[in-house]
Amino acid sequence: MTGVMSDKELRRVTRGFQTLHSVLRLRILAALAERESNVRDLEDVLRVSQPLLSWHLTQLRQAGFVTAERMGREVRYRFQPAAFQELVHTMETLLGISLSNEEK
Amino acid sequence: MTGVMSDKELRRVTRGFQTLHSVLRLRILAALAERESNVRDLEDVLRVSQPLLSWHLTQLRQAGFVTAERMGREVRYRFQPAAFQELVHTMETLLGISLSNEEK
DNA sequence: CTAACATATAAACGCTTATTTATGGATTTA
DNA sequence: TAAATCCATAAATAAGCGTTTATATGTTAG
Q: Structural domain tally of chain A?
């Protein structure tokens, strides 16, 4: 039963994990999960420089965790829950575990 | 509602993600999820050098994904599902999402 | 006790990537 | 159209980490 999952599929997963490896990235995601925001808003909330934010947002977007939409001169970023959910689902399959919410 | 989660808690999560960032690590975990093994067995299954395996196993162990037990001159490694499950649970809380297995 | 086996550790190297600083591009406003 | 605003990109630097090679530690067998 070894090797049932392709390297391509696993690389997609590891890319997701790589992208979530810093506290700042998680804080950005959490902020966007609360409400969609432009870069300026995040800058104020998270107290980090604008280029640094742009870079992290690009990484999160390329990994599918957020989407970006130009609106006037702003760019609004939105959290995308599906990306993480799919990641977890692949891991459940790979490891043969389940994350059932405690049975009621 | 921003910042409900401590940096300490988030660092624990990011450490978990950091640890799962390579395909080889995932393959090691998947192999151990199938059956507990010593280093020699994994070496044969995964076709990587012994020091490299030892290093990755140490990382996985320090992050809580596996446990190690000395048995004679071997060391048996076991997959530890709880670590990943807790990781996911923290993320659900942080992002306000749920990964419910489809409701029946 | 010595040799063989199983695993861990150390040193050295290279690569990736986060961060800072500076600048460019796009859009609106006056 | 000129200035201001918002965001992205480039260059440079530094730090972390995976990989290899070599050696050390621990355990059993003869």
A: 1
Q: How many CA atoms lie within 13 A of A8 on its CB side?
A: 0
ipTM for this prediction: 0.90
End-to-end alpha-carbon separation of chain A, Å? 33
**Span B82-101, pLDDT tens digits:** 999 999 999 999 999 998 65
Instruction: Tell me if B39 sits within 8 A of B78, measured CB to CB.
Output: no
Q: Is the residue at B56 inside a domain?
A: yes
Q: A39: domain CATH number?
A: 1.10.10.10
Range of the domain at A83: 8-94
Nucleotide nearest residue B55, measured CA to C1': C8
Partners of residue B30 in chain A, C-beta under 8 Å: 2, 5, 94-95
User: B99, A99: Cβ pair inside 8 Å?
Assistant: yes
Residue B71: strand pairing partners = B74
